[in-house]
């Protein structure tokens, strides 16, 4: 027996938090009976429907996707722009992105139908490293790099400490490549951090999502996570 919201999240219908909202709103039925009480437990033999649609017991799948720039990190777009899901038309499961990457940012993005895992990874209290490479101008000073590492005051508060490394600097063109590792996920955070120091981000890529790197992938390509990678994610989130 497991909690109803956990079953819904595992089926990839919604995150656990969203599943709880669906239950409270009376949109979930178990064996034909509408359930509105959180914490209700069900078995694998119970028939669960959400908004009248039977809950499919999909196999859980996990992909690492190299998101190109110019692609929307969402399942659907009302303006018919290309979304990350458009790159997975061959996948029968209803997958969705974990978190988001801006339209003009490329890089590592986890795609899955495991709502429970996605909810844990996206929760503000979960500190999961994300490493970015930013091509900026002008070249940051040592003091600016120290400020990035210690935290930048933005309009929505102080950023957490980060790991910062100057990778390459081109004095002739006044440009540099900076590696920045953070565990927060605020909207356009990296660009805003550099902007606060009057540094312009010309190009931005998320090079790593936790321990998952982009080696062997090109923009628009993806790969299924290996079993030990999935187990590692489960272990990390379980013990966070």
Automatic annotation (TrEMBL):
Pfam families: PseudoU_synth_2, S4. It comes from the Bacteria. It comes from Sporolactobacillus shoreicorticis. Gene3D superfamilies: Alpha-L RNA-binding motif, Pseudouridine synthase I, catalytic domain, N-terminal subdomain, RNA-binding S4 domain. The keyword RNA-binding applies. Belongs to the pseudouridine synthase RsuA family. Keywords: Isomerase, RNA-binding. InterPro entries: PsdUridine_s_RsuA/RluB/E/F_cat, PsdUridine_synth_cat_dom_sf, PsdUridine_synth_RsuA/RluA, PsdUridine_synth_RsuA/RluB/E/F, PsdUridine_synth_RsuA/RluB_CS, RsuA_PseudoU_synthase, S4_RNA-bd, S4_RNA-bd_sf. Its EC number is 5.4.99.-. It is an enzyme of class 5 (isomerase). Residues 2-65 form the RNA-binding S4 domain. This is Pseudouridine synthase. NCBIfam families: pseudouridine synthase. One of its GO terms (molecular function) is isomerase activity.
